[in-house]
Amino acid sequence: MPQSELRLVQYSGLQAETTMSPPCGKVHMALRFKGLEYDVVNLGNPGQTKRYNPRGRVPVLLFGEEAVVDSTDILDTLEQRFPSPPMNPSAPADLARARIWEDWADEVLYFYGAYLRWCCPENFARLKANKLGQLPFPLRLIIPYFAKRMVHKRFHGQGVGLKSQEVVHRELRTCLESLETVLQDQTWLAGPEISRGDLAVAAVIDQLRVETLTPWSAQQVSQFPAILAWLQKVHQKAPCASDAGPLPESS
User: Fold this and answer.
1) In sequence order, what are the residues at sequence separation of 6 or more whose Cβ sits closer than 8 angstroms to the Cβ of residue 14?
2) pTM over 0.85, yes/no
């Protein structure tokens, strides 16, 4: 299959070529890491998603007419069809660690970022002003209401949805401190080379760094030099797809 038949279906970021979604960012980075050419299909509203995925979720990666959904399944498929360079470590223990880091990014770290963006009134106002408010009328009135309602419904009664903003801030800070401690002693998260675990975690950190939308988390990330140095190395191999500003030059 020609590489040009690859198409990534996503919600765009503040620019058409970026994304506001960590799972979409993870797929962008995997495609770039593997040096694959691909096109981007930006959806205008959530109602368009089911055209590509009956579950109504992105990312979706189209291999010609074949659709693969879920960012982890997409990375598995890319690794199977385009094995070089590898995202999966060759050592079984390192591969296990890479998958644990990926799951932590997707199922823990992601939800702290989503909470900050959608459930904190001051940040949701920034999201509306910088992104949702740019939609054409009447979508700019309808989409913010239904999108926020959908996110709150997903959070209701579980996980971060049960916690106050103060607790979410404290727990996210603890996550960043733990990641900083790990990266002070090793170059990559799972073995001697970059892996899918690095891509998944970096995709979430990149979204936390978008100061326009979540200035508190951007300021927090900026305080951790080992994370910033690691992120710089990740981006050299798999360029960032978020709206975060440039990283500071490492000393």
Assistant:
1) 20, 130, 131, 210, 212, 243
2) yes
